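## retry 2 of 3
previous attempt timed out at serialization; input unchanged, resubmitting
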Amino acid sequence: MTDLMQPVSRVIGAHRDEILQKLDGRAGTLTVAALQNDGAMDTVIRCCYELLPGLVRLAVKEPAFRTFMLANRDRVLAQLAPPP
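## retry succeeded, writing output
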């Protein structure tokens, strides 16, 4: 399941602004603390899952993806949050 980080990183890299806009309506304005909110993380998980390639979604169902994303929360948020 650790190989799942590669497609997640690609999705975040390609759609970072779009994901952030779904969180607060503006891209690039969220802080690390805001992203650590459980509601924000749920939005990130939903957005990323929808943007994964179809073959990945066939292989990894959403509950398993949610578990993976929560277990790797810090790595995911580091890609979304602006550097300090």
